[in-house]
Design brief:
The protein is built from 15 helices and 13 strands. By secondary structure, the protein is α+β, with helices and mostly antiparallel strands. Among the domains are: 132 residues, no CATH class; 94 residues, no CATH class.
Length: 419
C-alpha cells in the first residue's frame, strides 16, 4: 500500500469524508460552492480553483491545530489535531518557485551562491546547460564558472549529467544507490572495475568498456556508489576520475534530496519525486512517509500535493519581484517537469508542445514571471520565439539579456527575435 493511500485511510479513520472536495478545501456548511463562487469572479481576476482529487494524500495527523487557510474539522475524542489543507493559487506557486530558484533576483557572486543555485543540481545533458542555469541565478557568471572548485560533475538523477556542489555529492550519488542486493552489487562491481582501470591510467570510457567488456554507458550505474566524478564538455564521452566514498548514509542522503526537491518543486508528490530522481515508486513513497511530520498537504489547480512545513510562510508571503528576463537552458530545473506540473507552468497546450518537444527541448524565455516563449542558439546566434507580441521595451530587455550570456563562442552573441 502506498504512502498516499495510507494517508487517505487514516483520514477516513478520523471520520473525514475524503471524497468531499468541500471538506478538503475548506468550504463550510452554508458557504458558497466553488462552482457558484467561480461564476461570480470576473475574467480578469479568475484563477483555476485549487482542487484536491480523491487520489490525493489528504491527511496529516497529530501535528497541527490551526492557523492555516483551508479545511477545518471538528475535534474528535482522542484526536489532538485535525486536518488542515492550504489551497494555493497558480500565481502563488510560481512566485514561490521563482523566488526559491533566485530567478527574480540574482544571487551575489561567490561559492555559496553557486551551491544555492545548484540546490537540486543543474542538469548538464546539453553542453553547458548548467552554466546557463548558473547565469540565470547568480551574478558575475563567466564561461568558466561551471569549473569552479566548489562544483563537480556527476551522473546524477536518471543517470543524467549534473553539475552539483562538491559538498552535496552524496545527495546526487549514494542517495540513488539501489536497495536491492542485485542492483547494489552491480553498482559496486562496476565501480571497482573502473577504479582498477583508473589505477592503470585509463580515463577513457570507451577504453574502460573494452577492457571490462561492457558498454561504456553501463558505468553510469557505478555513479551511485559516490566514488566517481566525470568531466564532460559535450564534444566526446566524459572522462572519469576516482574519489573517496561520501561519509553520508544513503538513507540520510535520500531524505535530504527529497527535502530539497520539496523545497524547490513544491507543491509536489512522491510520484513526481520518483520520476525526477529515477528512484522506484516504492522508495519514493517510503521517503515521503518518513518525512510526513515535516510536511503540509495543499490543494493546487492541478490537484493535491505536499510542501515542507518550513516553507508554508513563504507561500503565504506576497513579495514584489523585480521585472526579470531570463533565458533558461534546455533541462533547467524551473521547467524540468512532467505530467500535470507542466500544465501549471504553461497553461496553453500548443505552447506546451513547443516547449516540451519529443526530441531535444529548447530553452525557455522567462519574462516577468511567465514562460513567454522558447529559444535556441547556433554558435553566437540566439533565436528567440516569443508567444505573444512584445513591446519595444520588452524586446530591448531580451536583447540586453542575450548579450550577457556567458557563451564560449568567439564574438558577442546576437539575437534574432520573432515575432
Amino acid at each position: 500500500m502506498s504512502y498516499d493511500q495510507r494517508m487517505l485511510d487514516a483520514a477516513r479513520d478520523l471520520g473525514i469524508n475524503v471524497a468531499s472536495p468541500e471538506k478538503r478545501i475548506g468550504l463550510r456548511e452554508g458557504s458558497t460552492s466553488r462552482r457558484e463562487s467561480s461564476t461570480r469572479r470576473s475574467e480578469a481576476d479568475s484563477e483555476r480553483t485549487p482542487e484536491v482529487p480523491s487520489r490525493w494524500p489528504t491527511a496529516v495527523l497529530g501535528r497541527r491545530s490551526g492557523g492555516s487557510v483551508g479545511a477545518r474539522c471538528r475535534p474528535r475524542p482522542g484526536v489532538l489535531n485535525c486536518l488542515l489543507v492550504l489551497a494555493l493559487r497558480r500565481d502563488q506557486i510560481l512566485r514561490y518557485r521563482r523566488a526559491v530558484a533566485s530567478l527574480d533576483r540574482r544571487l551575489p557572486a561567490g561559492p555559496d551562491s553557486l551551491r544555492r543555485a545548484a540546490w537540486v543540481g543543474l542538469q548538464d545533458s546539453m553542453p553547458r546547460a548548467a552554466l546557463l542555469s548558473l547565469h540565470a541565478r547568480v551574478a558575475g557568471v563567466t564561461a568558466g564558472s561551471w569549473e569552479d572548485p566548489s562544483l563537480i560533475q556527476v551522473w546524477g538523477p536518471r543517470f543524467s549529467v549534473f553539475v552539483v556542489a562538491a559538498l552535496d555529492r552524496a545527495l546526487f550519488t549514494v542517495a540513488l544507490l539501489p536497495d536491492d542486493p542485485r542492483g547494489r552489487e552491480r553498482a559496486q562491481r562496476l565501480a571497482a572495475q573502473l577504479h582498477d582501470l583508473l589505477a592503470e591510467g585509463i580515463e577513457s570510457l570507451e577504453e574502460a568498456g573494452r577492457r571490462a567488456r561492457v558498454h561504456p554507458n553501463a558505468f553510469r550505474y557505478a555513479a551511485a556508489t559516490g566514488t566517481l566524478l566525470i568531466r564532460w564538455d559535450g564534444a566526446r564521452r566524459p572522462t572519469i576520475a576516482a574519489c573517496p566514498p561520501p561519509e553520508m548514509d544513503p538513507g540520510e542522503a535520500r531524505s535530504e534530496l527529497a527535502r530539497r526537491y520539496l523545497h524547490v518543486f513544491g507543491p509536489t508528490t512522491a510520484a513526481s519525486f520518483a520520476r525526477w530522481s529515477g528512484l522506484p515508486a516504492s522508495r519514493a513513497d517510503a521517503v515521503f512517509a518518513a518525512l510526513q511530520p515535516s510536511l503540509v498537504p495543499v490543494g493546487t489547480p492541478i490537484g493535491g500535493g505536499w510542501i515542507l512545513a518550513s516553507d508554508e510562510a513563504s507561500f503565504r508571503s506576497d513579495p514584489q519581484p523585480e521585472a526579470a528576463v531570463r533565458l533558461l537552458p534546455s533541462g533547467d530545473a524551473y521547467f524540468l517537469l512532467q505530467g500535470p506540473d507542466r500544465e501549471l507552468l504553461v497553461t496553453d497546450p500548443d505552447q506546451r508542445a513547443q516547449l516540451w518537444t519529443p526530441r531535444v527541448w529548447p530553452g525557455a524565455l522567462l519574462l516577468d514571471g511567465e514562460i513567454a516563449g522558447t529559444w535556441r542558439r547556433a554558435g553566437p546566434r540566439v533565436r528567440v520565439q516569443a508567444w505573444r507580441d512584445l513591446s519595444s521595451a520588452e524586446r530591448e530587455r531580451i536583447a540586453d539579456e542575450v548579450t550577457t550570456l556567458p557563451l564560449p563562442d568567439p564574438g558577442p552573441p546576437t539575437v534574432e527575435l520573432t515575432p
